């Protein structure tokens, strides 16, 4: 399996017709570089399709996922990129509200 140490999410939509080379160019444009063992996630404008580009240290892998019903929970255009934990990534891929996991989901006494 491919080792993934960090997962990054691009907020701006990606044209799902783009192939590996164009998606890699978009990663470099948005994130500055494609680091080994990092995954970069993009969604289309309707947020029902997602592409993940992973640099394994030798080459790049491009995977796609489509939801038959519903949408991926994608952030608004507040920032251009976000870092996700593994738990948040797992929830995102399933279409669950991943923003509520991790630090954002902690209940504290005010």
List keywords for this structure.
26% strand; alpha+beta; 110 residues
Report the mean per-residue pLDDT as an integer: 86
> What percentage of residues falls in helices of 4 or more residues?
10-25%
How many helix segments?
2
Distance between the termini: 44 Å
The total strand number stands at: 5
What share of the residues does DSSP label as strand, in percent? 25-35%
Order of helices and strands: EHEEEEH
Shape: globular
Contiguous low-pLDDT stretches (5 residues minimum) are: none
Structure notes:
This protein is of the alpha+beta class and 110 residues long. It is 19% helix and 26% strand. It has helices at 20-31, 86-94; strands at 6-10, 38-43, 49-55, 60-66, 81-84. It has a five-stranded mixed β-sheet with strand order 4-3-2-1-5. The model has no long low-confidence stretch (mean pLDDT 86).
List the helices and strands and how they pair.
Blueprint: E1 6-10, H1 20-31, E2 38-43, E3 49-55, E4 60-66, E5 81-84, H2 86-94
Parallel strand pairs: 1-2
Antiparallel strand pairs: 1-5, 2-3, 3-4
Compose a concise summary of this entry.
With 110 residues, the protein is an alpha+beta fold. Helix content is 19%, strand content 26%.
């Amino acid at each position: 399996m491919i080792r993934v140490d960090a997962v990054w999410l691009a907020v701006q939509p990606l044209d799902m017709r783009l192939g590996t080379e164009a998606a890699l160019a978009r990663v470099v444009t948005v994130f500055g570089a494609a680091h080994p063992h990092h995954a970069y996630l993009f969604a289309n404008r309707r947020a029902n399709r997602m592409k993940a580009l992973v640099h394994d240290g030798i080459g790049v892998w491009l995977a796609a996922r489509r939801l038959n019903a519903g949408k991926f929970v994608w952030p608004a255009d507040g920032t251009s990129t976000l870092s996700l934990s593994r738990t948040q990534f797992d929830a995102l891929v399933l279409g669950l509200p991943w923003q509520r996991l991790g630090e954002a989901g902690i209940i504290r006494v005010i």
